[in-house]
Amino acid sequence: MEDGVAKVRAEQYKGRITVHVIIACIVAATGGSLFGYDVGISGGVTSMDDFLLKFFPSVYEQKMHAHENNYCKYNNQVLAAFTSVLYISGLVASLVASPVTRKYGRRTSIIAGGISFLIGSVLNAAAANLAMLIVGRIMLGVGIGFGDQAIPLYLSEMAPTHLRGGLNMMFQVATTLGIFTANMINFGTQNIKPWGWRLSLGLAAIPALLMTVGGIYIPDTPNSLVERGSKEKGRKILEKIRGTNDVDAEFQDMVEASDLANSIKHPFRNILDKRYRPELIMAIFMPAFQILTGINAILFYAPVLFQSMGFGRAASLYSSALTGGVLLSSTFISIAAVDRLGRRPLLISGGIVMIICQVIVAIILGVKFGENQELPKAYSVLVVVLICLFVLAFGWSWGPLGWTVPSEIFPLEIRSAGQSITVAVNLLFTFIIAQAFLSLLCSFKFGIFLFFAGWITMMTIFVVLFLPETKGIPIEEMAFMWRKHWFWQKILPDDTV
Q: In the prediction, which pLDDT does 59 show?
């Protein structure tokens, strides 16, 4: 026996959903709202004239010359860097956060993320020059790196097995709520001259404060306490969050998993071992694919995108608020369905709908939208409807599940390293798309939608072939699942179980 848990005990797990679990998960998921708020706020702020005039006057000039190519209005690398510097700092922070999360617990990382985000939002709101703005963005990135590293792990470990998918999606609900809130706030602050953008950026301090203060009061996860040697305390917390004293089977799984975890000194080196190949592949491909759907490009730059299509400024912010609202509501479809239907059906159906929407949008823009003309009214409405449909499909599939699946498949001994890789890959691809999107839009024009549709086709095939169903499998017993999969059983060494 080399691999964590010795035998399958899942049917012996006892417990129900308790108030403690719900409160802890709500506080932890607040971290998702920080990520979402930032995604939503940056796109709106970068289309505000006062903000552009203060920090990016050359972009403002470019934007005023509307006779230029529709698709190239905002193509500026410094403006793209304002959005994307956050993701590079988040990437570095998530790698630092891995040993912190493992050694000092999930809760410590959540608090550290909250404090860092608080500092970043204050710096951004008070920014007097570009340097101050960029330093603020870097601090926000550090907060996101720590939060995204610790929160999905925290949610997966606190949730009872039969409800893990739904509870884990609290993170995505909070993210989409953050995006929607940001869109609504931008909609209001665009009319406050000349400091509306300061209010937009500064209000991020509210969820950051909630996450920091909440983090101080929530308990750490039993898995983390056991892993760090506090078995008694871990068992007490487990009994408390499961609402029963009969937790022997689940506790035994944790102890076995943590004994193995503690025998491993270098989880990052260990995750490269052949017996963790399926987990490593998922840790890289799931977050990369989530970003390659093109969703971030649409959410970041929704106001810019709709303005490029000839919508007025208010209309473009209105359209992006609409997409934010659709994304928020669609996550609830996923929560209702994920522990009933499973992960695979949602990912595959979402992929198919997204491909159809992207292709039709590309055709409309290709046929009806020339260099300098505006899109006819009826087609504009159709494009918004299709983008909403696309966002809806993303919201029930790759949005939440791009985080849920990786966070629930790692054995404890590589869990913090695996989550770190997931977050780092997510942020790396977010950075690449954020930095390149305006240039891609400029050179690909309507073909940008076909570019993303191609990726979605690939990822849907990937799920069909390589992702087993994780519904209802206890987190400490995932190793048995790969053994039964037609492809992974050929890859895994014989001594795994």
A: 81
Q: Counting Cβ atoms within 10 Å, is residue 191 exposed (0-12), middle (13-18) or buried (19+)?
A: exposed
Query: pLDDT under 70 in the chain at which residues?
Result: 1-8, 10, 66-70, 73-74, 300-301, 303-305, 308-310, 370-373, 495-497
State residue 497's pLDDT score. Answer: 47
Q: What is the pTM of this model?
A: 0.83
Cis peptide before 160 (omega within 30 of 0): no
Instruction: Give the model confidence (pLDDT) of 388-420 as tens digits.
Output: 999 999 999 999 899 889 988 998 888 888 988
Give residue 69's pLDDT: 64
φ and ψ at 214, to 5 degrees?
-60, -40
Residue 187's φ and ψ, nearest 5 degrees, are: -60, -40
Phi, psi of 311 (to 5 degrees): -70, 150
